């Protein structure tokens, strides 16, 4: 798992050397959610507000995120990926797909099915840990 995490950080650094894996994760979340407040990001990822502030600042400085007034409450700013942010996410996604295809090219259909089942099982267990009853 450590090697997996290390490889993920290295891949993120190659995709956009100025941004961390956390920044890419936050940018992807903003895209998935159609935008959200910084406090929502902090709550979702259980990160300190100062950490989110630094990461969002880096994303804004890189031109990947912008703040927009919430139409329902003009006191609140909602973070959204910029057009450039969406382009970077698309490029990273395409590069990841190519890398996965190359790494898994020699795997049999049965191996791929088992791998997918194990990933689903792992993610379900992780989700259960994140949301204790």
Can you give a write-up of this model?
- The chain has a two-stranded antiparallel ribbon.
- Helix 2 (21-33) crosses helix 4.
- The two termini are 26 Å apart.
- The protein contains six helices and two strands, in the order ααααββαα.
- It has helices at residues 2-15, 21-33, 38-45, 49-61, 83-104, 109-130; strands at 65-70, 73-81.
- With 133 residues, it is mostly helical.
Number of strands: 2
Helix share bin: 55-70%
Overall pLDDT level:
88
H-E order: HHHHEEHH
Q: Give the low-pLDDT segments.
A: none
The spatial strand order of the largest sheet comes to: 1-2
Strand content: 5-15%
Shape: globular
Number of helices: 6
What features would you highlight for this structure?
single chain; 133 residues; mainly alpha; two-stranded antiparallel sheet; 2 strands; globular
């Amino acid at each position: 798992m450590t090697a997996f995490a290390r490889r993920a950080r290295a891949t993120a650094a190659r995709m956009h050397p100025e941004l961390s894996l956390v920044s890419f994760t936050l940018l992807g979340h903003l895209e998935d959610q159609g935008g959200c407040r910084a406090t929502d990001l902090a709550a979702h990822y259980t990160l300190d507000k100062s950490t989110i502030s630094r990461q969002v600042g880096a994303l804004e400085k890189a031109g990947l995120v912008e703040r927009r007034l919430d139409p329902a409450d003009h006191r609140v700013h909602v973070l959204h990926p910029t057009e450039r942010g969406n382009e970077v996410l698309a490029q990273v996604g395409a590069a990841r797909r190519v890398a996965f295809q190359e790494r898994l090219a020699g795997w049999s259909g049965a191996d791929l099915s088992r791998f997918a089942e194990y990933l689903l099982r792992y993610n379900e267990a992780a989700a259960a840990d994140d949301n204790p009853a």
